[in-house]
Structures
1.
Amino acid sequence: MAAIEIIAGNEPPQNAMGTRPVNRLLLSMAIPMMFAMLVQSLYNIVDRIFVARLGETALAAVSLTFPLQMLLLHISVGTGVGVNALLSKSLGERNFALVRRSALNGLFLGVLTSLVFVSVAFWGVDFYFQNQKVSGAILAYGRDYLRLVCLFSFTLVGQVLLERLLMSTGKVVCQMISQIAGALINLALDPIMIFGLFGCPRLEVAGAAVATVIGEAAAMLLALYFNLRKNKEIDFSLKGFRPDWAVLGRIYSVGIPSILLGALGSVMVYGLNRILLGTAASASAVAVLGVYFGLQSFIFMPVFGLNNALIPIVAFNFGARQKRRIWRAIELSCLYAVGLMTLGLLIFQIFPAELLRLFNATPQMLAVGVPALRIISAHYIFAALCIEAISVFQALGHGLESLCAAAFRQLALLLPAAWLLSLLPDANAIWWSFPLAEIGSLIMVAALIQRVYARQIRPLPD
C-alpha cells in the first residue's frame, strides 16, 4: 500500500486524451499512424521484390515462412492491444499504480512470447517445413530465414509492445518515428545484405532475415528510448516487480481474441484459394485474389491507423467517465473511415485495369480481375463501419465481441457464400461473397454495439 500511495501521490499532469479537442486529438494520433502503416505496407512489397530477384525458389521459401511470422506478429499485436486498453483506461482513472503494473506485465508477456519462438528456432523449424513436404533449395532457404526470425523474435515483440506503450499515452509521433525508422533501415539493408553490396558478404535469403531483425532492433531501441525519456506517465522501475496474474488475465481477456482475430484472416485466404482453385480460371482467379489483398492494404491501412488511434481515446475517456468525448470520437472516426473507404471504392471502380497492370497482368487475368476488383470493393463503406465498431469493442474490454464479429464474417458468411456462388455458371458471382458477408457482419455488429452502448456508455453522466 505504501508503494501505491507514493506513486499515486506524485501524479503527472492531466493527459491530453482527456483535455484536447476530440477532433484534433483523433487526427493528431491517427495521421502519423496512417503514414507509418502505409510505409510498412510498402516495405512488405519491396522486401519481396528484392528476394524475388534471387529466383522463384527463394521467393517460395520466404512465402512459406509467412504463416509462422504472422503468428508471431499477431501474438505481439494482440498482447499490445490488451496492454493498450488496460493502460489507457487506468490513465483515465488516474490509477498510476495499475498503469505501472499494466506496462511491466505486458513486457513480461513479451519476454515469454520471445522464449517460445526461440525454442521454435532450435526445435520447430525443421518440423515446420518437413510437415509441408518441403525439400531441396526451398528447405535450405526457408530454414535459414525462419530460424533467424524466430531466434531474434524479441526484436519484433519488443518493438510492437514498446510502441503500444507510446500509443497508450498519446505519444503517437514518437511511435511513428520508431516504426518508420525500423522500416527504412530494413529497406536500406535488404539489397546490401541479400546481394553483398559495399563489402558485405552475400547472404541471399538469410540476408533478408538479417535486415529484418536489424530494422526491428533499431525500432525497438528507439521506442525504448522514447518510453524512458518522454513517457512520464509510466513508471518503468523494476523494483519489487512480480507477475500479477490478475493483470495478466485482464490483458489477455482483450489480447487473446485480438490474436485469434488476426489468425482468422489467414484461414479465410486459405479457404478462398481452395475454392478458387476449383473454378475454370483457377490460376488467374487465385492471382487476382493475391493482387487484391496487396492492393487493398493501401486502402485499409489508413483505416486501421484510425482504428488504433480510436482505441486509447475511447478507453481513456471511458475510464475518466467522459461520455460526450467517447461518443464524439466514435462519430468522427466513423466519418473519416467512410470517407477513406469511399476514396478507395472510387479508385477500384475507375482504375481496376491500371491497378492490375502494376502486377504485369495477363489478358486472362485482366478479364477475371477487372470485374472482381469492382465487385469486391462494393463492400468498402460497410467495412469501414465494422472496423470502427470492432475498435470500440476492444477499447471497452470486449475482445470476445470483436472476435465473434470477425469470425461470423470470415468463416460463417464469406467462405460458405463463396463456395455456393462458385457453383453458379457466372464466373464473377463468387466475388459477391465479399459485399454479402460484409452486410451480414454489419447487421451483427450493429446489434452488439447497441448492447455495449446501453450497458456501458449510456449510464455515464452527460
2.
Amino acid sequence: MKIYVPADSAAKALGADDVARAIIDEAARRGQEITLVRNGSRGMIWLEPLVEVETASGRTAFGPVTPKDAAALLDGTLAGLGPVESIPFFARQNRLTFARCGLIDPLSLADYEAHGGLSGLRRALAMDSAGIVQEVTNSGLRGRGGAGFPTGIKWDTVRKAQADRKYIVCNADEGDSGTFADRMIMEGDPFTLIEGMVIAGLGTGATKGFVYIRSEYPDAISVMQQAVSVARDQGLLGASVLGSGKAFDLEVRVGAGAYVCGEETSLLNSLEGKRGIVRAKPPLPALEGLFGKPTVVNNVLSLATIPVIFERGAAHYAGFGLGRSKGTMPIQIAGNVKRGGLFETAFGIPLGELVNDIAGGTATGRPVKAVQVGGPLGAYMPVSKFDTPFGYEEFDGQGGLIGHAGIVVFDDMTDMLGMARFAMEFCAVESCGKCTPCRIGAVRGVETIDRIGRGDAAAIPVLTDLCETMKDGSLCALGGFTPFPVMSALTHFPDDFARHKEAAE
C-alpha cells in the first residue's frame, strides 16, 4: 500500500507531519506493510493535509485528513475525493511548470525522470548555445519574478558577453505577501529548478549557479540542498553534465531576511557578502553582475519553466496565453477566500473569475471589496476592474501589475486608508536606504496618511505629489512601486479616506 502525505510547508503547518506519524503508527500496530512517500503539495491548501492512496485504478485523494482518520484510511472506509485530477479546482488548470508537483517524490531523480524530467535537458545538450537561447526567445517566456522582462533577451545578452566566467543566479527570495509558488516548487519538484538552471548555463556559457533562498524557508532550503547533492551524485551536476563533457554546478545560499534582497542587484551584493543595498544601473547584471561577471538573474518560476519548454517545444508553450503574455502563470490565491492555493493557468483569465469562481469568493461570506495583485507593492483592484484579463499589459493598462502573481482578497470590512498606510510603512521598514525618495519618502508617506486619518483633507494632494516623486525617483521597485497600492486605494476607495475626515469633524 503506497500512501502520499505532503511534506510541503503549508501542509505541515496544517498537521501533515502528525497525519504521517499516525498512519505509520497505525500500520505498525496492525503489522501492515505500507510505503509512505512525503510528496509536495497539489496546491489546494483548504484540503490540506491532502493524502493520496495508490490503488489499482489510480491515486485516490482524501482531505483534509486528521490523525484520527488513520485507521479508516487503512481500512478503506474513509470517504474520498476521487482522483486529484477530477477535483474542479485542479481540473481547470493548465499545469506545465507544476505538472509534477505533488505527483512525485521530490528527492527521487528516478521518479522525476519517469514523469518527463531531464528530457528537456537532453534535447538542450544536443543544441548549440544560440539555439538554446532562441528556443527560450521563441517561447515568449517573460520573467516570473515581477518585472516581466523577456527571458530570451536577458540570456542572449549574457551569452554574447565576453568574460572568463559567467553565472546563473536563481532569485528564491520570495518575500511578497500572498506568494508561495517558489517555495512550493522547491519543496515539491526541486529537480525542475536544477534542470532549468543547467539549461540556462548551457545557453549562456555559465558553469556555476547559485540558488539564493530566503532564510524564512527552512524546508525549501533543506530540500534544495538534498536535491543538489543527489543531482551531483547522479551526474546531473558537475564537470560533465549527464556525461556530455559540459560542466555546470550550483550551490544553495541563504539570505538573512531583507525584503529588498528580492531586487536583483541587492541580491547580488548579498551573495558577495556585502550589505544588501540596491546598485545603480547601468551596468546591468547581464554584463557586470555577480563578482563583476555577466550574470543571469532569474526567478524560481522562470527557471523551473525552462524544462517544459524544451521538453514540449517553444511553440507548444507559446500556444498558451494572451498577447505578449505567453504560456501559463502559477497564480497564488490568498487572503479572505474560501479556496486558497496555487492555480496554474494560461494568461488571459479574468480577475473576477479567479476571485469569485475559482477561489469561491470570501471566506467570511461578505462582498469582495478589493484584490491586491502583485504583493505588498501591487495595486488594489476594485470589483469594477474584475473583467481585466490576467496579462502584463492588460494589468498595466489598469494601473496595476502582475508581479509574482500573488492575489490577496479583502472583504467590505477592510479600511483602505489603513491598507495604504501599511504599504508606506512596509516600504519605510524594508528600504535599504540607498536612495532618498524611498528612504525619506516612505516615512513622510506614513506621516501624511496619518494626517489624512486625522481628517486633514489638505494632505491628500501632498500624498499624491509624494507618490509621483517616489515613482519617478526611486532606484528600484521598492520605492518605485509603493505608490501603486497607495494611489489605487485613494483613487478607487475615496470614501474610506473621506470617512476619516467626517469622523474628525
3.
Amino acid sequence: MFVIMRAGCTVDERNRLVRVIKKVGLPVQVSESGHRVVIGIGGDEERLRDTPLDTFPGVEKVVALKTPHPLASRECRSESTSIQAGRARIGGNGLTIIAGPCAVEDGELLLEIAHAARAAGAHMLRGGAFKPRTSPYKFQGLGEQGLRLLRDAGRAAGLAVVTEAMDTGHVDLVAEYADVIQIGSRNMQNFALLKAVAKSDIPVLLKRGQAATITEWLCAAEYLLAGGNENVALCERGLVSFDSAVRHHLDLSAVPLVKRLSHLPVLVDPSHGTGKRELVPAMARAAVAAGADGVMVEIHQTPHLALSDARQALLPAEFEQLVPQLHAIHDIVRTGSVAVT
C-alpha cells in the first residue's frame, strides 16, 4: 500500500501518519523529492483495516499495492498524462514527432538536419552527445560540446531538444542544455541514475531495456515517479531477438498494453527497433496505428557517412514524406473515422 501526500503537506502531518502506521507494527518507507511525499507500507495491510488513512490531514490518496508500479498505473491515475517539454508536448491528443541524427557530429551538419526536421513537421530534435557503444573503439560522442551544438541547433530551428544522460554525473549537465533527458535502454535499470534524474523536474524519456519485461520497464518508471519526477514518458525501442534479420524485435504489442496498464505517454523508436532504413517508415506507421503518442526517427543528409548507426537513418526527403502519413493515421486512430475527400 502507498499513501500519497498532498503537495504542501506539513512535516507534522507526515510524521503523525508514519507514527500511526508503525504503531500497528508495519514497516514504513518514506520517499521525498521536491513537492511529492510518498509513504510506502509493507506487511499485512489488514492491520490497518480499522484505520482510514485517507481521512488523515495531508493525505491525497491511498493506493492499494495491486501492482509493483502503483504510481505509474491506471489505478493511481485514470487520465492519461501529458507532458510539456520545452516548446513541445508529449501525450494528450497530439502526435509528437522527434527526429535527428543518432549522434551529434558537427554543428553545421546538425543545424541543417534541425531545419529539415522542423520543415517536415518535427517537434523535437534528438542527438546523442554521450554515446554508449558496444565497442570502446567506436565514436563515443562530443560530450558537452555536443550538448551545446544540440541546444543551439534546437533554438535556431524552434525545436525542443532531447538527449541522453549516461550516468549520475551527467544529469545536471544535460539538464542545463536539454528540454528532455533520455535514459537509454542500457541504463533502464541503472537505479542510481534513475534516482538522480528523479530529483529533477525536467521531463524524462525512458527507453525500454533490450531484454526488459513490461513490468521491469514500468518499475523503472516507478523509480522516477516515486522520487518526485512526474514528467515521465516511455519509449519502446526493440528487444534482443534470436533473429539476425533485423537489429531488434520491435514489440509494438507493448504500446496498447502499456497504455492500458499505465497513464504515461508511450513513444516508439522504429530506427533502433529495426536497424534498417527501409523498414523504418512502415514500422513508424504501425506504431502510430497501435496507439503510440509519438515516434522518434533518425535522419541524416548523408547516412553512409554517419559516425553512429548509419544503416538506420532516413534521408530528410524520406522523413518529409513520412510525417503526413503519420498524422493521417493518428487522426484515424484518435477519431475512429476516415476523412473522405
